[in-house]
Amino acid sequence: MTNRRVFGIILLVLGVIFLLNVLQIWSFNPFFDGWWTLLLIIPAIVSMSRQGVTTGNMILLIIGGVLFLQERNFDFKGFLLPAVLIVLGIALFIKK
Fold it and tell me: Of 85, 45, 89, which Cα lies nearest the Cα of 65?
């Protein structure tokens, strides 16, 4: 599937979602707490799909994920060390 078609499908889905919101059939607010962190997460995932897992896109994804969880008031106590170990393990496993 070409990038043009994927982008077209994304625009179509967004248009339908916003139309349902305007018609009050479905309530959707695209600006949830931490929405701006997707500006870090999405490019990192796209970069991983195109270039594979690199140190740069992994760091960008981790930073975006941590900031997103902080915006959502996630309590990191006890989770930080296991999360870092899991991410590093996945990175070593997937890295080319």
Answer: 45
pTM of the entire predicted model: 0.57
Q: How far, CA to CA in Å, does 8 sit from each of 16, 27, 94?
A: 12, 23, 30
Bin 38: left if φ > 0, else alpha if -120 < ψ < 50, else beta: alpha
Tens of pLDDT, residue by residue over 30-74, are 677 788 888 899 999 888 888 888 888 888 998 998 888 888 888
Query: Is the CA virtual torsion 38, 45, 3, 1 positive or negative?
Result: negative
Contact at 8 Å (CB) between 55 and 49? no
